[in-house]
Amino acid sequence: MSSATTGNLVYDYFIYPIEAHAGYNVVNTVVYGAIGLVALFLIYKWFHKKGWKFDWHFFKSLIPFIILGSTKRVVTDAVYGGALSGWIYSFYQWNAL
């Protein structure tokens, strides 16, 4: 079934790409970005209310999480996208021995 034929915007742009492993599209990328910006703004307001400061030490402590999250996403896309699927399966085959 084509995702453009259902008439349900939530299904077409958010649920169907997950079911079909189709990845991102313009609509869900913009919505996810807007949700992320609103969440960032609310977290900033909450930190400011608590008296916590955004200084260099705070940003340095976030760098490992940013690198880990982006690396996990890249590896996941490479494995499920087919770029690394053969390598991963052969690695696990030898790892199981």
Summary tags:
flat; mainly alpha; 4 helices; 0% strand; 97 residues; 75% helix
Helix- and strand-based class?
Answer: mainly alpha
Outline the biggest β-sheet: none
Which sequence of SSEs, written as H and E, runs from N to C?
Answer: HHHH
How many DSSP-defined strands? Answer: 0
Could you tell me the strand content as a percent range?
under 5%
Mean pLDDT: 82
User: Globular, elongated, flat, extended or rod-shaped: what is the shape?
Assistant: flat
Helix content: over 70%
DSSP helical segment count? 4
Radius of gyration: 19 Å
Domain count = 2
Low-confidence stretches: none
Intertermini distance: 42 Å
Structure description:
By secondary structure, the protein is mainly alpha-helical. It folds into 2 domains: 1-52; 55-97, no CATH class. Helix content is 75%, strand content 0%. It has 4 helices and no strands. It is flat, with a radius of gyration of 19 Å.
List the helices and strands and how they pair.
Elements: H1 9-19, H2 26-50, H3 56-81, H4 85-95
Question: Gist?
Answer:
The protein is mainly α and about 100 residues long. Helices cover about 75% and strands about 0% of the residues.
